Fold this protein.
Amino acid sequence: MSAHLKQDKPVTSNRLDGMSQGVIGKPLSRIDGLAKVTGTARYAAEHQVENLANGVFATATITRGEVLSIDKACALAMPGVLAVVDDDRLTTRAAQGTAGEAPQQSPAAVCYWGQPIALVVAETFEQARDAAKRLVVEYRVDHDAPLDPATAEAEEQVDDTVNQGDLAHAMAGSAHSVDLRFETEGHASAAMEPHAAIAEWDGDRLTVYASLQMLNYNIAEIADALGIEEENVRLLSPYVGGGFGSKLGISQESVAAAIAAKAIGRPVRVVMSRQQVFQCVMRRSETAQRLRLASDRDGNLKGFGHEARVSNLPGETFAEPVLQSSHFLYGSENRALKLEVARIHRMTAGSVRAPGEAVGMPALEAAMDELAETCGIDPVEFRLRNIPDRNPEEDLPFSSNKLAECLKRGAEAFGWDSGPRSPCQTRDGEWWVGTGMASAARVHAVGEAKARVTLKPDGTAVVATDMTDIGTGTYTILAQIAGEMLGLTIDEVDVQLGDTHHPRGPGSGGSWGAASIGSAVYLACLELREKLAERAGTDEAKLVLKDGATADGKSLVDLLGGEPLSRTGHYEPGDVEDDYTVSGFGAFFAQVRVNRHTGETRVDRMLGAFGFGRVLNEKTARSQCLGGITWSIGMALTEALLFDPNDGHLVNCDLAEYHIPVHRDVPAVEVVMVEERDPVASPIQAKGIGELGLCGGAAAIANAIYNACGARLYHYPMTPDRVLSALPG
Amino acid sequence: MNRAIHVNGSDHELPDDPRVSLLDFLREQVGLTGTKKGCDHGQCGACTVIVNGMRINSCLSLAVLHEGDSVTTIEGLGTPEAPSPLQAAFLAFDGFQCGYCTPGQICSATAMLDEIALGWPSDASDDLESGIEISPEEIRERMSGNLCRCGAYANIVAAISDVAENGR
């Protein structure tokens, strides 16, 4: 039996608020937490499989060309080596999120430096690593691969193009305007768990222990790549050591492990090295952006222009959606937006946490700061004056828009000084001190989701879906939703995730997981309540369930009568998406200090205020925000992928050279949650939460750098060399 | 047993292959997968274990160098039934998200508090001579070798501070 809802209309019933258990929204500790803090949670490479062989990739040392030969005999003569796999089905690029089909294959055709070309399999990891390193490969090299995103041929993403009114006229005729060019460097997801897979065959049936975010799509990608039926594949990802986009689609290790395991008739494990994760999975594209903003004397926007150039490999459909929130965040009748993608031979560009807004918002919000200064208006006030009533491009209502409230509550909590804002006003020894702010926005999305909820005869519940928990808190919030609906504590709800034998969820990505799969669990529980109400002789709407019993004392155990009761919830996005613009909104505030001798920037404190629908768990929701703000610090100050201009290879391909924030880079961070119920966003009134925290935060830091020391920078990250060269004489 | 190493109180024979890192030995041969491999180059701290009372990156050390040493891993600090104070505090303060860096953070923090107790100064210490006052900045400095990409730092510092203040 299944409970199905296609969301064609807002769901205003807010049933979760009428329940009695009192667990929804509460700051409860994670139900998977003890396993994680005691080291007993098993990640992909850690599943105990008998007779396991180990595979290590050999990767291309050319940028573009062809593998002519591989000296397999030499490798096979080394101790322990079992096979050298260069099967044509090996995948060479990561699949894009929600692809559902095999990514590029044929490893002999090399498209970027570092592309896997073969898998060396040996008894031990050490043996495989040595043999892979010594593999002798002969290439034919193409010398003319385009590598520079600034000069390579580019294609316009016409769906993103907007021309409304007359921006040029508005720029020329308005009281104030800015015309600014920004650059952002590429970013790496750099999840702490390297990509890994263990593949095991039982006849024609394949089991893969994998580290993946979206099993529902990944199973189709693996089956397609191998040329087998999806029914013969089982994926297991009960714990995923971070994803941030890099595990949305399959990467090279899962298919390689499957092919190798079949070839040698033994289970095979493939774990990428950290360098390989950097070099051959995913990058966030660098961007070059132009912001043209015009306003009247009173600070009302009269012109809005945002253009961006990004890059990707030839043949890839993904283009960093830089303009995503620029389409609706601020009003203006005269608008020009354009996105183009240059074709270059670096590793695949794809989704890295908050694709689009992560780099578009920092440029937009730095430009807004500069225009606010030109207008002589406080930057918080300037934004408040430009919040549109409706989506200015599509004339759609917002399902809700908490930007104004976030700006006000954030400013108050931060202690924002709305007085005059000249730079270079505060010195503390050799440090300039200043503050800055920025708006946050991130579009909300949902995906089709199924989950089964079973009440067991003992009155406890099991939630089962192939949905993943990549650190987001999915295990816990699903227990809270089921517990709230069925009158159980979260300890009485056993949540089983990351197994494709369970009903298919949406996967974790694009911040859509909680709202989508949470709604499926909610729908299943509603149906269970119908059945229980029938047995209790009442209406579902009147059924009160708390602590395993109805209000008049009938226990769940008695109502179940010794039999399990199971329903599958099925949630589908519907037409409501066409009737509203749905987004999370927020505001960032930062205080920084800039060293006047070295140009070093330190973040003293940071605050984010966010409106993203219902908060399902106050503790894990706050943690998502903290994570986003931490990413904002990295993007503002340190994170940059650096490519060799001669062969396009990634130079800083490890965690010593690609600088993610460390403990001492992250100060006291405050989160203000502006809770709301958004009936359009999902049947549980929740919106995405995992990405909003980095959609604009880097600009708050950039604007604070300017306020501190007078250096306006247009190039993220704002490293000491760039700050020094921009410091006023 | 020839060439033994003591891990969480049990003896294990060291490997024959001299290339095996202490990290891979613990994960593959002892079966203690709580210790994580994040970078294999001493850059992320996920593999932190405590050897003879000192925290080290187990990926940067060869197993065969540890004859007679006592190693404590995350599994040796506590169990789901009886977590250590730091393990319990990480859970209570949500000092993790994906959980992959977490065993390293907890092993590191366990030994780090001992270092403070011994009076070892850090870059964040006001004074090299007198005792160390435990502060968020001291903790951040001393934990900066343990990366967390989920961005749980603020909660990790809160968890460690709580244990430091309220006893272990």
